[in-house]
Structures are given as C-alpha cells and as structure tokens.
Amino acid sequence: MVIISDCTDCKNMGERKKGVGIVCHAFPEGIPSEWFWKGNPKEVKECNNGIGFEPDDERNK
Fold first, then answer.
1. Mean pLDDT over all residues of the chain?
2. pTM
C-alpha cells in the first residue's frame, strides 16, 4: 500500500531540510511524522501556527 500525505498537495509545503526533515510554513522546524502520515490537513482549519491547508494549483496540475 502506498500512502501519500495531503501535505504534498499544499502550497505551504517546503523542501526537505537536512537534519530536520520536510518543512512547511506551518511547521518550519519540520513536519512531525505523525502529522505528515496520519494527519488530515485537508480536513482541519489549522495545521499549526495559524496556517492551514491551501491547495497548490501549480503542483496539482
């Protein structure tokens, strides 16, 4: 089974940072693995720091 996090469809998603992992505007110090794999960013109002899921139209073409 392949699981792809909703985070990968969000315009707030950043790049991988060495020693930190995958970052985004909501989690600049690294997205917690339990959130990345089991969270439901598309279904909550806020992920962290007042920032929530926003579809990335460019990434989702």
1. 87
2. 0.79
Q: How far is CA 32 from CA 13, 24, 27, 58, 60, in A?
A: 13, 11, 8, 25, 23
| DSSP letters for 21-35 | EEEESS-TT---HHH
Strand partners, 51: 48
Tokens read off for 57:
């139209």
d(CA 31, CA 16) in angstroms, rounded, equals 10
Percentage of the chain beyond pLDDT 90 is: 39
Within 10 Å of residue 59's Cβ, how many Cβ atoms? 11
pLDDT score at 39: 81
Q: How far is CA 24 from the centre of its chain?
A: 6
